[in-house]
Amino acid sequence: MPKKPSTTKESMIEGAFQLIRENGHEFLTVRNLAAFLGCSTQPIMYQFPNMDILKDLTYQKADTYHSDYILAGGNLLEIGRRYVQFAEEEPYLFKFLFQSGRFLGLSLEDLIRAPETAGVLAAVSTEENLTEEEAVSFFEPLAALVHGYASLIANNAMKYDPEAIQTTLIRVAEGLERGSNQNDETVSKK
What we know:
This protein has 190 residues and is an all-alpha fold. It has a single domain (9-189), classed as Tetracycline Repressor, domain 2 (Orthogonal Bundle). The protein is built from ten helices and no strands. α6 (91-98) packs across α9 and α8 packs across α9. The longest helix has 28 residues, at 162-189.
């Protein structure tokens, strides 16, 4: 009976995830992953003759990890706060997910409507009692704000100040709600 491989496809994906988490996505090479796993490059190259496949599977793992992290917040304010907090706690994963060139050529609306964002968009729709189109319009400026904070923090260009960020998120959300209510009143008067 053949010996079961000690370096499985799953362990390679987990290793790639941990390698990126600790060192950044630029560090993910066959040689670095082999050293990290304590194996030769051969089993990695056998399982992943194309490194892009490993990067895609690792991206999916990181995206699921990120989604679970931010959606644990429950309400919209907490989801936004956790998005920024994730950039503080996991800057290399944040950069891998959002700053590795994966979204070149896409608009902010494309990103908001992406399948990976469905959980957040559903939370916005439910919490604010909005249709999907209204939720996209409401969420777009909040997403730009939160992502801006997170990007600055992940790149050490801004100090993480959770209280200031939360205050800003509340103010912007309240402003969006007021603007939406004023638009509703204007439409109903016509």
